[in-house]
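Hi V.,

You were right to ask for the full record rather than a summary. Here it is.
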Amino acid sequence: MQGSGSWERPGWSDTKRGLFTVIFLVACFSFEPDWDWDLPEHFAQPRVPKDNPMTAAKFDLGRLLFYDVRLSVNQQTSCATCHQQKLSFTDGLSHSVGATGEKHPRSSMSLANIAYSSHLTWANPMLKRIEHQMLIPMFGEEPIELGLAGKESDVEQIYRQDLQIKKAFERAFPDSSEPVTIDHITQAIAVFLRGLISKDTPYDRYLMGEKNALNPQEKKGMELFFSERLECFHCHAGFNFSDSVDDEGNPFAGLAFHNTGLYSLDKEGSYPSENQGLYAFTQKIEDKGKFKAPSLRNIEVTAPYMHDGSLESLEDVLEHYALGGREITEGPNKGDGAQNPNKSEFVSGFILMKDEKEAVIAFLETLTDERFLNNPDYSDPWD
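Predicted structure:
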């Protein structure tokens, strides 16, 4: 029974048991070749911590744990609740909801290509390793996500009593005298997450020489996107469309935060109190409202947009930047974001004709990776 130490979930059919067994056998008895990233030429290789190298056994274990509802206080929530593959590992909500029903102040970020993130979450400059960040959704209490604070021993005991999962831990961590630990849980999930590489979009195929991968409208949108006129590329740069990137070939990790003029509640350019961005960590007035520029890969499926999900569509996002910021005329968030003193110099506004707007959005949709969104290697093994 679920939550009693057994790996089997209620209602499992023989077919589901068989699928789990295949995954288990692969993780436990197959040889582990060097990890093959299989990256296109225009991609860099992710930087991987030396104390947590990529292996097939850890990836498979991490996948099982990522989708396991036993890693939550209510035994109904998993990492995948807020990070769904079909939505590029987001959840489609403006504010994610934790295992206890608590609503979060921000939306869930996409996990696609998280291996390249120089820092994690929307605005925390100190979180640079997935292994460390994982502790927040597991054990954090403000807000509660998985709700496991104080239940570390219970979690470890569940997996020690589950012989199938325990053997997967042993295979993933063969040199450890105690394979089932919280550290190993976070390490395995981190390996799974680093393996979530989105790299096969029409745009990627175009860069690799398939000139018909983009149609004329999409090519026009690409030219506009990378133009000084719109200035999108300054913050959404490089192969991952973000200026906060780290990789093996980069001696200095990119670390950037931007105020895009979503709000301006006072003369200091304040944002709503629960979402002050980088300011929450630095207490510098000039950092109010500054957030990380996320990757635009699979942006078509990750609505609603911005850190608080306050823009519903790509059309809304483009209109926001065209205006150089958002003006809210009434209510507690009243203010003109275009006049925010901390706003990025790249958010200055522009004029686009209707066909140009359509072209830019068409280009953004070429960043959708259908293979990634449907890759069975990333899917729920418990289904």
